[in-house]
Every structure is written in structure tokens, then in C-alpha cells.
TrEMBL record, chain A:
NCBIfam families: PRK07570.1. This is Succinate dehydrogenase. Its cofactor is [3Fe-4S] cluster; [2Fe-2S] cluster. InterPro entries: 2Fe-2S_ferredoxin-like_sf, 2Fe2S_fd_BS, 4Fe4S_Fe-S-bd, Beta-grasp_dom_sf, Helical_ferredxn, SDH/FRD_Iron-Sulfur, Succ_DH/fum_Rdtase_N. Pfam families: Fer2_3, Fer4_8.
From TrEMBL, chain B:
The keyword Transmembrane helix applies. This is Fumarate reductase. It comes from Pedobacter mendelii. The gene is frdC. Coiled coil: none annotated. NCBIfam families: sdhC_b558_fam (TIGR02046).
Length: 256, 226
């Protein structure tokens, strides 16, 4: 690992499992390169801990290129750290200063129980998707793309909603631990396209019901989720979900 | 009600109730502020007392008063329920949470601002509503109408009451700055053609309503109107 000139104090949340209480533990790191990613800095910390015979810090990560949605650290009071529109793996140490103290905590929500240290169980999101975040189509050859005309603006809006990587930063930063931005993005990406229409009003009811059952909080429109989302998912999706939910409950024959 | 399923018990349904009652209360404030602003005619309250007399005797208004109370209580109870649920949704709090990096302080403090307004409302209702509805307004003006203007004038001689009213109107301003636009978002009205108008109208509405209301105790206390 390349050496640099940054000396840092880390305050990292250590928690054995969901049954025990956790606490912030201080670690000193020397000679950190400003060109390292935040996760590489954690790799250095973990090598030190392993060499000393201590337990390494457990944290989620996978692709390390900002598209998988696995990394999930709450850094100095913000999900994915101080920069906008990046995930923790794409955050670099040059965003910090030599001598900084950095507090790193897991996502905190009743619906995201801590597995260990900085890793939380986000399978609540999977259950929300399984409740209705899909389309039912016959298998077989894909039909010609041009046989389904979709206006450009509509396609773009659906694509922007589909950019959600399901990392959970919206839940983490929301003062109410609400999952409205995630759920609305997963509803919108289908509600905006013709393939999503047959199940549109059943989907919004089922997914909102599952979101509530998972114990996420209620939205109060602070806008923190939109500001912190690494993929820039818009609050327009929440408004669309609210419209669809009202249509489904008050104007649709099919009430779930 | 089976046809509507869990429409109002779901998280979105609860938001609809907050937003709908919020917009209803916003409309009420326009009527309340408009009639009260008649005191600024500075005619010894003759015109204002005509308005107050109409509001106290017209049966449509009196029926509306019941709806207003129900709406207000629904707004308060729903807020309490939502706040308790939201606290449960995050049992372990963050050691460091940089809220100012991503949202306005008043958007995150609607419960606190609302509680301040509730305390104000208890004082406010006992100052005027209880007097005009139950204990009775002691004097009549030159037109023979109940002289609510005189009650206002007497009440606002107390500097503590004036201070409470002015501070509460600052709370109201910030509560509305978030609430006005938030209600539209909740109702699904988020559209590039209207967002600018909604945001602008919300800011102007909040500031104008709060300043007009705050000016009333100040004007009485310092004798700008007689």
C-alpha cells in the first residue's frame, strides 16, 4: 500500500452483533495517502488490527466502483461522507485534511439491524422489492424495441429512477429513517414505462404496505434523502408514488 | 370502508391527513388574518367589530368552527402519532449527524415548532375564544356590536402577552415555510411547471401572514392604533 503523509484519528463504531450494544473506538492511522479511497484506508486499518491480533472492522463493500450499492458508512454525520453524488468507495482521502478526526458509524434504523460493526442487514429492501417491484412477462424472444414507442422524456425519467443502487443512504440520513425515496424510485422506474402498467396500482399498494411492515419511519419532506443520494434520485419520485397510491386507493377497483 | 383498505393507516395515508389538514389551516389563517387586519383601519374597531359579529353569529361560520377544531386536532394527533413512530424507526441515534448539510433546520424541527404553536394556541384561545364564546365580551361599541376590539386592546397592554405572541409568530413563519410547500409535495403536486410558484407562494404567504399577525399586538401595545 502506498504511503502518504496524512495522520488521522478514526472513531469507528464497533458492535459484536445485534444483541449487544456497540461503542465508538478510537484508532490512530499514520502515513495515509490522499489518493486512497476511503475503503482502502479501512483496509490499511484492518491490516494493522490483524497484525496486532485484534478483530478487523467488518464493513460492506463489493464492486468499489460506485455502482453496486454495498458500501454504507455514515461518515462525520453524512452517509457516504462529505461529497455529493459519490458512494463511500468513490470517496477519496483527499476530501479530508491531515490531522482530521473522522467518525464512522453504520446506517442506523430499526429496519436495518446491525450485523456487525459497520455492516447492517438491508434485506428489508429486498422484501419491499419482492412485494411488487417487478413486471410479469411471458418468456421467449425479446420483441423488437421499436414496437413499444416510449417518449424520450419518459424514458429518461424512468432511467433516472432506475439509477437507484439500493444502498440505503436515504434511510440512513432521514431524520425519520424513512425509505420513501428508495421505494418511490423502485415504483417509478416501472410506473413510467408501458411494461409496468398492468401491475402499476397493485404494485404501489403492495410495496408501500411492505415498507410500513418493515418498520421504516414516515416521510416529513425534509429533502435530506435527495441531497445525500449518491445517484441523485429526485423527490419527484416520492410525489409520483403518493399520486399513484392515492389513485390506487381511491380510484382503482383493486385494493390490496 | 373495506374498499379503501388501509388508505389512511399507511404511512402515505397519514401524510395525506397531515397535508390536507395543513392546507385547511393555511386557508383558515387567510380568513383569520384578513378579518383581524381590519383593526389597522384605526376607526376604534367599528369595522373590525362588524366582522367579528358576523363571524360569531353566522351559522355557516359557526359550523365551520367545528370543522376547524376537528382539523386542528387531527393535525396535532396525527403529528404526535407520526413523531412517536418515527422515533421508534431509529432506536439508536447517531453520535454525529450533520443535518444542516442536507436539509433546513425548520424542516427537521416541525414537531418543536408545532409544540410552541400549541402552547401559544392555548394562551391565545383563552385570551379571545373563551371570552367571546363563553365568558362574554363585557362592552358594546357605538354600533351596538360586542366590542372584541376593546378586549384585544386590553389584552395587549401586557408586555409578556405581546412578547409571547411575537415569538410565536416567528415559530409560525418557520412552520409555514416548510409546511406550505411540503403539503403540495405530499399531495403529489411536484411538477416543474408549478414548483417555482408553490415555493414562492409559500415563502410570501409565510412572511406576510406572520408579520401581519405579529403587528397586531405590537400596534396595540405601543398605541399605533387607538
Amino acid at each position: 500500500m502506498s504511503t502518504g503523509n496524512m495522520n488521522l484519528t478514526l472513531k469507528v463504531w464497533r458492535q459484536k452483533n445485534n444483541k449487544t450494544a456497540g461503542a465508538l473506538v478510537d484508532y490512530k492511522l499514520a502515513e495515509i495517502s490522499p489518493d486512497m479511497s476511503f475503503l482502502e484506508m479501512f483496509d490499511v486499518l484492518n491490516e494493522q488490527l490483524i497484525n496486532k491480533g485484534e478483530e478487523p472492522v467488518v464493513f460492506d463493500h463489493d464492486c468499489r466502483e460506485g455502482i453496486c450499492g454495498m458500501c454504507s458508512m455514515f461518515i462525520n454525520g453524512r452517509p457516504h461522507g462529505p461529497k455529493d453524488l459519490v458512494t463511500t468507495c468513490q470517496l477519496h482521502m483527499r476530501s479530508f485534511k491531515d490531522g482530521d478526526t473522522i467518525v464512522v458509524e453504520p446506517w442506523r434504523a430499526a429496519a436495518f439491524p446491525v450485523v456487525k460493526d459497520l455492516t447492517v442487514d438491508r434485506s428489508a429492501f429486498d422484501r419491499v422489492i419482492a412485494a411488487g417491484g417487478f413486471i410479469s412477462v411471458n418468456t421467449g424472444n425479446a420483441q423488437d424495441a421499436n414496437s413499444l414507442p416510449i417518449p424520450k422524456m419518459q424514458a429518461d425519467a424512468a432511467f433516472e429512477a432506475a439509477a437507484c443502487i439500493g444502498c440505503g443512504a436515504c434511510v440512513a440520513t432521514c431524520k425519520n429513517a424513512s425509505a420513501m425515496l428508495f421505494v418511490s424510485a423502485k415504483i417509478s422506474q416501472l410506473a413510467l414505462l408501458p411494461q409496468g402498467q398492468p401491475e402499476r396500482y397493485r404494485r404501489v399498494q403492495s410495496m408501500v404496505a411492505q415498507m410500513d411492515a418493515e418498520g421504516f419511519g414516515n416521510c416529513t419532506n425534509t429533502g435530506a434523502c435527495e441531497a445525500e443520494c449518491p445517484k441523485g434520485i429526485s423527490l419527484e419520485n416520492i410525489a409520483r408514488m403518493n399520486r399513484d397510491f392515492a389513485s390506487a386507493k381511491f380510484a382503482s377497483e383493486e385494493t390490496v | 370502508m373495506s374498499g379503501f383498505g388501509n388508505a389512511f393507516s399507511s404511512s402515505i395515508g397519514k401524510k395525506f391527513i397531515m397535508g390536507a389538514t395543513g392546507i385547511f389551516l393555511i386557508l383558515f389563517l387567510i380568513v383569520h388574518c384578513g378579518i383581524n387586519a381590519l383593526i389597522f383601519l384605526n376607526d376604534g374597531g367599528l369595522t373590525f367589530n362588524i366582522g367579528a359579529h358576523f363571524m360569531a353569529t353566522n351559522w355557516i361560520i359557526r359550523a365551520g368552527e367545528v370543522v376547524l377544531m376537528i382539523g386542528l386536532l387531527a393535525h396535532i394527533f396525527q403529528a404526535l402519532r407520526l413523531t412517536l413512530q418515527n422515533n421508534k424507526a431509529r432506536p439508536v441515534k447517531y453520535a454525529v449527524n450533520d443535518g444542516k448539510a442536507n436539509s433546513k433546520w425548520y424542516s427537521r424541527s416541525m414537531g418543536l415548532l408545532g409544540t410552541l404553536l400549541l402552547i401559544f394556541l392555548i394562551v391565545h384561545l383563552s385570551n379571545f375564544w373563551v371570552v367571546s364564546r363563553f365568558t362574554g365580551i363585557p362592552t358594546v361599541d357605538a354600533n351596538g356590536h360586542e366590542d372584541l376590539y376593546a378586549v384585544m386592546k386590553a389584552t395587549f397592554q401586557n408586555p409578556l402577552i405581546v412578547g409571547l405572541y411575537v415569538l410565536s409568530m416567528i415559530s409560525l413563519c418557520y412552520h409555514l415555510l416548510h409546511g406550505f410547500a411540503s403539503a403540495f409535495q405530499t399531495m403529489g403536486w411536484n411538477h416543474s411547471k408549478y414548483n417555482g410558484i408553490i415555493k414562492g407562494a409559500g415563502i410570501w404567504y409565510s412572511i406576510i401572514i406572520s408579520i401581519l399577525f405579529a403587528a397586531m399586538p405590537i400596534a396595540f401595545h405601543f398605541g399605533f392604533i387607538q
